[in-house]
Request: fold
Amino acid sequence: MSDTEDIVEEEVEEAPEVEEEPEEEQQEEDKEDEEDEMEEREHGEGSEGETKPWTKYITNIAPPKLPDGEKLDFDDLHRKRLEKDFNDLQSLIEMHFSSCQKEEEELVALRSRIERRRAEQQRVRAEQNNERQARLAEERTRREEEALT
Reply:
């Protein structure tokens, strides 16, 4: 019996060793694949299905057209760029002041409406107060007449 027990023990011991090696190799391969994917994401490389880097720069400025075979006049390019920037700033300033002027006009209109509403409320309160005082005066005179009679 001891011979059979030894054989069984050996088989049991060998079986896990054989299974562990492919798992370890598979885990190492998985780690390497994950590292490769991380590097590809960091460097912006990858297959067609992957997304591009998060930051994208969208420019509205078309590159200047360079004349073929001629020297570039960088002073002229700089002057044109400054003129364009100056014109853009001027338009932004005009838009800002026109919007400020509109807001100021709206504010003045609002203040005038508030003042008119307050004046109307004061007028209504004064009329109500006068009517109440008139009623109180009539009640006094009536009480005095009733007291005399």
About this structure: Confidence is low (pLDDT under 50) at residues 9-21. DSSP finds two helices and no strands in the chain. The two ends are 140 Å apart (CA to CA). The first helix runs from residue 2 to 43.
